[in-house]
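pls design
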């Protein structure tokens, strides 16, 4: 919880710079995850959505609703033309979330995401929606 609060406290600065918009995912008054949209600083018409949900709450639609919420901000308020979701190829739940929200799989990106956990780069799928 402390890490989440520290992360969210950066929101005013990031929003002011049109860099990122991050939110907690709540179930009632319980924080069950987080989500956000990051604006590409070289191509400001593109945003990337990210989300995570505590395992205890998987399969309840929280991530699907979070993506819909972020998409409204991205295509609406931020006037983005394209929104992307990058995901681990093994993450079947994330794939379902993207498909439920009508994102299209564009391909496999090789060794593009760095993991501090194992100090290595990993592949990911790229899903996207354009307006």
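designed seq:
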């Amino acid at each position: 919880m402390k890490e989440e609060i520290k992360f969210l406290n950066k929101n005013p600065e990031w929003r002011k710079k049109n860099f990122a918009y991050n939110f907690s995912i709540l179930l009632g008054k319980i924080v069950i995850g987080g989500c956000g949209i990051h604006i590409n600083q070289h191509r400001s018409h593109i945003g990337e959505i990210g989300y995570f949900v505590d395992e205890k709450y998987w399969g309840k639609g929280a991530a699907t609703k979070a993506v819909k919420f972020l998409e409204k901000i991205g295509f609406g308020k931020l006037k983005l033309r394209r929104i992307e979701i990058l995901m681990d190829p093994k993450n079947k739940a994330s794939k379902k979330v993207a498909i439920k929200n009508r994102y299209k799989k564009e391909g496999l990106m090789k060794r593009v995401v760095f993991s501090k956990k194992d100090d290595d780069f990993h592949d990911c799928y790229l899903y996207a929606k354009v307006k």
